[in-house]
Design goal:
The chain is mainly β. It contains 2 helices and 10 strands. It starts with a helix and ends with a strand.
Length: 274
């Protein structure tokens, strides 16, 4: 009986020790991590809810470079032009001065007014500045003493002029409808007058440098392709060579008593790509 009581007592004591050890372990273990509480979904139509923000439109950058075709000049004029340019001028050219010193050396004693056709070809390096060359042909008649000699011989006499050189023009308002300009050129020129009667030719040809062509005008820029307007040209030169043919005898050589001569041209100019 006493052994049975001892066994029961040991079993009870052992069970009590295990229970105490389990409680101690549970008390020392860290509490389990709980997930954070979910945020409550906003109710539809909440008055304090901010409106959605619209994304700002992306601005398109303008290209950097030469003006496009839709760019206009002043007051709707064609845009200013750079690059290739061509012009034709004509009018009436009036001679002044002398071929050579002497009483019979006046320009008007040999040449009458002429109708020139001058081609300007080149380009604008900037809208204001044109640089190029000129080539001209002029047609007219004989004048003064030479014309009288032609009449006496019952001959029809004509006058012809040729000139060429380089030039520059400055345009003051290249982006406006009305563009005033001035120019200067230098080159070489030749003039001739001749007539024929009864198989006999009478002629005079002179040539020499042109020291300056002072020109100016006003271009009415009708569109980006065509411009037209009045112009004036005043050329100064000196003939240094002469050739004559009279009654079958030809003489040619340098002029000894050279003199200055001038041509004043009043006319109109048409320009392509003004």
């Amino acid at each position: 009986m006493s052994k049975w009581l001892v066994s029961v007592s040991v079993s009870v004591f052992t069970f009590g020790a295990l229970v105490c050890a389990s409680r101690v372990a549970l008390a020392q273990a860290p509490p389990p991590e709980l997930p954070p509480p979910a945020a409550p979904a906003p109710a539809a139509g909440t008055p304090n809810e901010p409106p959605p923000v619209a994304s700002a439109p992306v601005a398109q950058a303008r290209p950097i470079g030469p003006a496009s075709d839709d760019v206009k000049g002043v007051d709707g004029a064609p845009p200013p032009h750079t690059g290739f340019q061509l012009a034709v001028r004509t009018g009436v050219a009036i001679p002044f001065g002398k071929i050579e010193e002497g009483k019979s050396g006046a320009m008007s004693d040999t040449f009458s007014p002429q109708v020139p056709f001058v081609l300007d070809i080149g380009g604008k390096v900037i809208p204001n500045l044109f640089i190029g060359a000129y080539l001209g042909l002029a047609l007219g008649g004989a004048g003064g003493n030479f014309a009288d000699a032609c009449k006496r011989a019952n001959a029809t006499c004509v006058g012809v002029g040729v000139r060429f050189g380089i030039e520059a023009q400055w345009h003051f308002m290249p982006d406006a409808k009305m563009d005033p300009w001035i120019g200067y050129g230098i080159g070489y020129a030749g003039e001739g007058a001749s007539g024929q009667a009864n198989g006999v030719t009478t002629s005079l040809t002179v040539a020499g440098p042109e020291y300056g062509h002072f020109s100016g005008g006003l271009d009415f820029r009708l569109n980006k392709t065509i411009g037209i307007g009045p112009m004036v040209d005043f050329g100064i030169g000196r003939y240094t060579r002469a050739k004559t043919e009279t009654l079958g005898v030809t003489r040619e050589g340098d002029l000894q008593n050279t003199a200055l001569h001038e041509w004043l041209t009043l006319g109109v100019r048409m320009v392509v790509l003004p």
